[in-house]
């Protein structure tokens, strides 16, 4: 593989119709990254069959990155905590999207957060909307997602029609992510779980009340995400229910952010064995971990534009094959499981199941057809 190991992975950006479930990384920025460097704060968006259905965090720079990479703001947004680099753009996006949706008769954007985080958002982050004299409910629909259980994502509403990116615009896309045609109706928007996704928050170790997630597809865990968190074995173990885990880590660790030096401990945790581990939240691209940082083999690097196929854990996948699609209420699109995850996804599955023996540090799984194991020069 030679130099290819250290070439940048061939990111596939949204534009062609993909099947199955995947995420697109929108940014890896930390607190002040976007303010001083214009690179997006850490965030990712979940796509179903090529359509964005769930945005995870909306800090500074995320909206522009979302429009750049997937064309519009999806119908649902989950916020992990009320820090500017995770929720900073929320008030204005809700104002723009809410006003546009109301004018067009479309469902409002659905905002998801743990109840404690939602209280922070409503009372502080969204305070500037109070001056409009309009209730917050006129800008978005609010969905509290408690920890301890998986809550269906109401992602089958119509998404943004106000984005300026390519492909945005009312009627130009089916935004419900479910493979159905036409704009989402109010009833579809209100129907929880219509797209098959559900989310279960897990408390992270952070200065602000913060909850990461496990995301499920038809009840099968597909992604764990720490959001912002200091080193926390209990959290990592819980998230490892999913075959792929996104971990917050930066060059210098602290009580509220894991450090690159913690990654070796994380990958050695029993629950993490056989899991794909991606690092995010490290800041600018030139602050990404380097070989000299001692990051263990197999740890991969999230970076803007990276697409990663999601699929259930092997056991759950076998179960899914037996009854593929049977429980996918409200969605007529491709079912989860291997059937809907072709080509590169199977390659990703093979990499996951192999536990990445002999893998290379800083593998930047491109998620593209060129292979998920191409490494990146950092
Ligand atoms: Zn934070």
From TrEMBL:
Residues 156-194, 326-378 are annotated as: Disordered. InterPro entries: RibonucZ/Hydroxyglut_hydro (IPR036866). Transmembrane segments: none annotated. It comes from Chlamydomonas reinhardtii. Residues 158-170, 330-340 have a biased composition (Gly residues). It comes from the Eukaryota. This is Metallo-beta-lactamase domain-containing protein. Residues 171-192 have a biased composition (Low complexity).
